[in-house]
Amino acid sequence: MLLKTLIAAAFIAIVASIAAGAGFLLTDDTRSRRLLVSLKVRIVLTLVLLALLLYGFLLGDLG
C-alpha cells in the first residue's frame, strides 16, 4: 500500500511541476531560470516514478 501511495504522490508532484512550469513560461521574463529548474525537477520526479514502478513490478506488488 505504501508503494502505491508513493507512486501516486510522485505522479501528483509531476503534474504540479508541469503546472508550475507553464505558469513560469507565461509570466517570467527571458532571464529567469525558474522554468529550467522546473524542468529539472520534473525529470528527477519522472525518474523516481519509473524506478518505483520498476521496483513494484519486479517485486510483484503491482501486477
Structure in words:
With 63 residues, the chain is mostly helical. Helices cover 83% and strands 0% of the residues. Helix 1 (2-27) packs antiparallel against helix 2. The longest helix has 26 residues, at 2-27. The protein is elongated and about 45 Å long. The model has no long low-confidence stretch (mean pLDDT 94).
Radius of gyration from the CA trace? Answer: 15 Å
Taken from the alpha-carbon principal axes, the silhouette is elongated
What distance lies between the first and last C-alpha atoms, to the nearest angstrom?
A: 13 Å
- Pairing-aware structural class of the strands and helices? mainly alpha
Low-pLDDT sequence parts: none
Helix proportion range: over 70%
Give me the oligomer status.
single chain
- The SSE string, one letter per element, is HH
Instruction: Count the DSSP helices.
Output: 2
Report the count of strand segments: 0
